[in-house]
Every structure is written in structure tokens, then in C-alpha cells.
Specification:
The complex is a heterodimer of chains A (336) and B (99). In chain A, strands 1-2-5-4-3-12 form a six-stranded antiparallel β-barrel. Chain A has a six-stranded antiparallel beta barrel with strand order 6-7-8-11-10-9. With 336 residues, chain A is of the alpha+beta class. Chain A has helices at 18-38, 43-73, 77-111, 324-335; strands at 122-135, 140-144, 157-159, 164-171, 176-180, 187-192, 198-203, 210-212, 226-229, 241-249, 258-263, 272-278. Chain A has four helices and twelve strands, in the order H-H-H-E-E-E-E-E-E-E-E-E-E-E-E-H. Chain A is globular. Helices cover 70% and strands 0% of the residues of chain B. Chain B has helices spanning 9-24, 29-32, 38-49, 55-70, 76-90, 92-97. In chain B, helix 1 (9-24) packs antiparallel against helix 3 (38-49) and helix 3 (38-49) runs antiparallel to helix 4 (55-70). Classes of the chains: A alpha+beta (336), B mainly alpha (99). The interface between A and B is large, with 43 and 36 residues.
Chain lengths: 336, 99
């Protein structure tokens, strides 16, 4: 009789058999994958999961946060004073530059025949702290501690004090995942500041490089050129600095130039980033083409939409609608 | 299996949580390559040592947690983890008998 008993009758029945459960879970997870990939239906589920995961992520970050706090509280008096002095000097320098900038802005408006200078495209911003970092060749993401409770939405531009850092992808109630410009899945529409040539910068997967894969080998680009956002694509406002060209390789065999650029933002070391809301209808605001699948899912994490009439100051002469966005970038860059 | 032991559910949950935290800990890239997939190992251990305490549900939940943390397609790790735990739970007596 013992020979006849099946060997695989191990667990006394309590609930469903493992085989049945496995089939069930497999079906559930494949459905999840399909729904998550193909449509925005799971936005709500992700939102809830991200909210649930946030305490654990904070716990993960706590050792380094505690270390930073300790270091800060044991800083010596001299070092603090030195830092204070340095910051004061920097502050003076920046104020000087702001003065100069305002004069330039007025002059610029006059030259273009406008009655008043345009307001800056960034309407307001929120400083967020980086909680978790993931930097490898396949994924370049950071997690920041601001979410929908602070008004953060999906596909929001993220900057640091030097340049463009990335945009938000998954937004939770208290946290948001930021895909960096160097992520291989990320692309920024850029413009070469010197020539105005527009192209696309794709992340290269290392924290120090962007690639410009779509430039013909006779394109006018050289080492040291500044890349700024072009305002196309519906996410980033025009005129923010992104990267500086580090290397241009032209191969006689290949039709495309191989261009690498280093991002200006401190990709792997910034602890604080800025989430930016842009002014609706501003000429330098992103052109709204982000319709379609981006609009699916939760109501309160939708990308910002430009609605209403464009905000153009009156133009004195009968020049019609002068191409304003082109001239905007000089000013923005000055400001950074 | 006549002596009915209490299922170590608390230990299972606690150790899985710790493993999840360790697997989410940011490490410098050099060490990152050497980091073992601790959550998978813990879930595997429990599905062999106490297949009824966590079992497939634990595997699925752990996979879903990994998906959330790593931002991958929802269900990707969940599927892989339920497959691994399914095999482990099904074969746990055979595996346990071999040292």
C-alpha cells in the first residue's frame, strides 16, 4: 500500500492547494503587469502602495539622515562661522547679479518693443529632499519627500540649483519618484544655446552623461556648447540649462555624430531639489502636447495643463506676434 | 507532523520586513553588485521551513513590495516570487530531507 501512495500529498488540506494558489497568483500578477504597462488603470493602486511604502523608505533613509544630523550638530564654531561668511559673500554676489539681471530684462523688453518685461516662467517652486537614490546603468531615479499633499503632479519638472534634474514619474501621497535626465528611458527636448539647433538628449545610464543620438555628423555642435530645454514636449519650460557638450565624435563611416554631454545638475550628490510650477500661458511655458495616456488615472496627479490665453504683453509696433520664446532663454540662463 | 506547532507568523513577517529594508538600502555602486537578494532568500527559507506560515501569499506580497520599491512594472517581481515559492513549497519535504 505504501508504494501506491502519491509522494506529493504533503500538506493536509487547509485552504486551497499550492498549485491552485500559484495559478491564481500567476494570473493576478500577469493581469497586473498587463494593466500597469498598457494603461493607467493602476494609478490608484500604485498611489496607495507608494503611500504604504513611504514609512519603510523613511526608515531606510534614517541612518544617513541621522548621520547628517550628528555631523551638523557637532560642527565646530569656526567652521560654522567660515561657512556663514562664505554664504554672505555668495549672497552679495547673487544680489549684484540680480540687479544686473533686472536691468538686462528691461533692456531686453525695450529692444523687443514690449511695454513691460515678461514675468519669469517659473510661477512657484517647492524644495524637496531626496530620500532614496537608485543609480545604476538601467535606472537612474531618486525618491523625494513631497507628494500630492504638496500639490506635486505627474510629469513635473525637477531642477536643482545648477540645472535640470528630471521629472516626476510616480507620485504618491507623501513622496514622488523622479526619473533623472540620465536615466536611459528618459529623453529631454533640448536646444543648443549657441545655434538654436533643436534635438533630443537621451540619458546614457551613468550619472555623468547624456547622449545626443539624433544629430547628423555635419551638425554645428562643438565641445563646450550649452544645451538648454527647448520647451517642446509639454513637460519642461523653455530656457533651462541642461548640460554642456563634453565630447563630439564624427566618424566618416557613420551618418550620425556621436555626442556626449555632461549634465549641469549635480545628479549624484544633490540632497535638495526643486519642483517647479510654471506660469500658464507664458510663451516659455511647455507646449502642451501631453494628451493621451498621460491623462489616465488619478485626478490629482495629472500633468499641469496650459489653458487660457497666452500671456503676451502688448506689442507696440504692428509686428504681429513676434517670436517671443526664442529670446527668453538668455534671461533664464542668467538667472540660474 | 503529528505535533501541531504554532506557525511562526510573527517571525516570518518581521524577518521579511527587515529583508525588505535591507534590500532597499542605498549602497555605493561597488557594494551594490555584491548585495544578495535577501528578501528572496528569506521568503525561500520560510517556505521550506514553515510552508504554511507564509507560503505563496507571502511570496506574492513580497514580490509586490519589491515592485513598489523598485518602481518596476507592477506584478513583475510578484510573478517571479510566487513561482519560486510555489516550487519551494511543493518540494519542501524533498529539499528538507537533503542536508
Amino acid at each position: 500500500v505504501a508504494f501506491g501512495t502519491p509522494t506529493r500529498r504533503s500538506l493536509p488540506a487547509r485552504g486551497a492547494s499550492p498549485g491552485f494558489r500559484f495559478t491564481l497568483y500567476a494570473i493576478v500578477s500577469i493581469t497586473l503587469m498587463f494593466l500597469d504597462q498598457r494603461s493607467g488603470w493602476l494609478e490608484n493602486a500604485r498611489y496607495a502602495l507608494q503611500g504604504a511604502a513611504y514609512p519603510i523608505q523613511l526608515a531606510v533613509d534614517s541612518p544617513s539622515a541621522a548621520w547628517g544630523w550628528l555631523q551638523e550638530s557637532f560642527e565646530t564654531r569656526e567652521r560654522l562661522r567660515a561657512e556663514n561668511q562664505r554664504l554672505a559673500a555668495r549672497q552679495r554676489e547673487l544680489e549684484m547679479r540680480v540687479l544686473q539681471f533686472e536691468a538686462l530684462e528691461r533692456e531686453n523688453a525695450e529692444l523687443r518693443g514690449l511695454e513691460a518685461a515678461l514675468p519669469a516662467v517659473a510661477d512657484r517652486w517647492v524644495v524637496a529632499e531626496v530620500v532614496n537614490v537608485e543609480l545604476n546603468s538601467l535606472r537612474q531615479r531618486v525618491l523625494v519627500n513631497r507628494g500630492t499633499r504638496n500639490g506635486v503632479f505627474k510629469a513635473q519638472a525637477v531642477l536643482d540649483d545648477r540645472g535640470l534634474l528630471g521629472q516626476t514619474t510616480h507620485v504618491g501621497p507623501w513622496s514622488a519618484e523622479v526619473i533623472l535626465v540620465t536615466d536611459p528611458e528618459h529623453a529631454v527636448p533640448v536646444q543648443i544655446e549657441r545655434t538654436g539647433l533643436r534635438t533630443i538628449a537621451v540619458g546614457a545610464g551613468t550619472s555623468g552623461a547624456l547622449a545626443l543620438p539624433y544629430l547628423p555628423s555635419n551638425a554645428d555642435i562643438k565641445r563646450g556648447d550649452l544645451l538648454i530645454t527647448s520647451g517642446l514636449g509639454g513637460v519642461f519650460p523653455a530656457g533651462y540649462p541642461v548640460a554642456r557638450v563634453a565630447e563630439v565624435r564624427r566618424d566618416a563611416v557613420q551618418p550620425l555624430a556621436q555626442v556626449r554631454a555632461t549634465p549641469l545638475a549635480k545628479i549624484d550628490s544633490s540632497r535638495e531639489v526643486m519642483l517647479v510650477w510654471f506660469r500658464e500661458g507664458h510663451p516659455a511655458a511647455p507646449v502642451n502636447v501631453a494628451e493621451g495616456e498621460l491623462q489616465a488615472g488619478r485626478e490629482d496627479i495629472q500633468p499641469q495643463r496650459t489653458k487660457g490665453k497666452p500671456l503676451t504683453p502688448r506689442i507696440e509696433s504692428g509686428a504681429g506676434s513676434a517670436p517671443l520664446p526664442q529670446g527668453e532663454r538668455g534671461k533664464k540662463e542668467e538667472k540660474q | 507532523m503529528s505535533a501541531r506547532m504554532r506557525e511562526p507568523r510573527l517571525q516570518v513577517l518581521a524577518s521579511s520586513l527587515v529583508a525588505l529594508i535591507v534590500s532597499a538600502l542605498p549602497l555605493p555602486p561597488m557594494l551594490d553588485a555584491l548585495r544578495p537578494p535577501l528578501l528572496v532568500l528569506v521568503v525561500l527559507y520560510w517556505s521550506i521551513a514553515a510552508p504554511r506560515a507564509g507560503g505563496l501569499t507571502l511570496g506574492f506580497a513580497a514580490g509586490l513590495a519589491l515592485d513598489t520599491f523598485q518602481g518596476s512594472v507592477l506584478g513583475q517581481h510578484a510573478f517571479a516570487m510566487s513561482l519560486v515559492t510555489y516550487i519551494a513549497v511543493r518540494e519542501h519535504q524533498k529539499i528538507r530531507s537533503k542536508p
